[in-house]
Amino acid sequence: MHIDPRGATVRGPSDRFTGDVWVDTIARPQPPGYATVALVRFAPGARTAWHVHRHGQTLHITQGTAVVHTRDGRTIIAGPGQSVHTPPGEWHWHGAADDSFMEHLAVSTLPPSEKDSAVKWAEHITAEEYASALTHNERPSNP
Fold this sequence. Notes:
Layout: E1 10-11, E2 17-18, E3 21-27, E4 35-42, E5 47-48, E6 51-53, E7 57-63, E8 66-70, E9 75-78, E10 83-86, E11 92-96, E12 102-109, E13 119-121, H1 127-135
Antiparallel strand pairs: 1-3, 2-5, 3-4, 4-12, 6-13, 7-10, 7-12, 8-9, 8-11
């Protein structure tokens, strides 16, 4: 048992995010497991570029309103205490609603042998795509 050193908060890189985003790494893979956890904070309207996780991803919303959108046109709006899972291979983007900050825990698996290939990044989301996702959505209910 040990305490991992706390890393610095880093700004989300502009090739992967639109708007102001900050990332804190919470957990890196510890053998024999492969879990990664990051606390990600989005300013209003900030969002990721399109991306896909080879092993899927779970987002647990801790503050604000999250927007999660898939290539097939599905949008989910989720709030604090709700989790959204994107299965392996599903192209998606996620970010904050346009009127509030949003924070989520991003949980995924990253086998050491796939360090550079477990996530693929693509193009940024246009303002029009973002606005469309906000108006065509589903809000999951709390169980």
